[in-house]
Amino acid sequence: PPWKPVMTHTRVGKILVVGSSVLIAACGGGPSGPDDSEFPPVVREVKEDPSFVADIRDIFSREGCSSGACHGAGAAAGLNLELGSAYASLVGIAATQVSFERVTAGKADESDLLIKLEGRQQVGARMPLGGTPLDAIDMGNLKNWINKGAKNN
């Protein structure tokens, strides 16, 4: 033809948008990284025989119990729930405000940890202090762990 087609800014913009969309669709879309379907959501459940390492320490970490402000290193009453110290600070150790143990293996209802988490304490405050009570799954796993012998597994 005797005339030359002229590319306008609008036409160039449309081409770039369409071209980019095709590339993104061809590459799997969105930012690079694993597909969410590769990582199913973590299923939380009450276990009959929970593990201290896999289940109980996770509660302390997830709920913020092991933070420096609450029960980290140098915490009040010497209850250190940080990784590597939690078990030794809990099981068979005398509670500081009452005359029984923080965790008495095989006896969840007589363990100061559960008494404070349930709000049944005579001295001190319900735990987590100023926070939301633990849900039924976490409480069930703590009770089952203690009642099954409070093993360091």
Structural class: mainly alpha
The oligomeric state of the chains shown is single chain
Annotation, overall tally of beta strands: 0
Rg, please?
Answer: 27 Å
- The stretches of 5 or more residues where confidence is low (pLDDT under 50) are 15-30
Mean pLDDT: 80
Q: Sketch the topology as an H/E string, one letter per element.
A: HHHHH
Percentage of helical residues?
25-40%
Q: Strand share of the residues?
A: under 5%
- Tertiary shape: globular
Largest sheet: none
Measured distance between first and last alpha carbons? 82 Å
**Helix segment count?**
5
Topology of helices and strands:
Layout: H1 9-26, H2 52-62, H3 86-90, H4 112-118, H5 136-147
Helix pairs in contact: 2-5
What does this protein look like?
By secondary structure, the chain is mainly alpha-helical. It has helices at residues 9-26, 52-62, 86-90, 112-118, 136-147. Helix 2 crosses helix 5. The longest helix is centred in the N-terminal third of the chain and has 18 residues, at 9-26. The relative contact order is 0.14. Mean pLDDT is 80; it is low at 15-30.
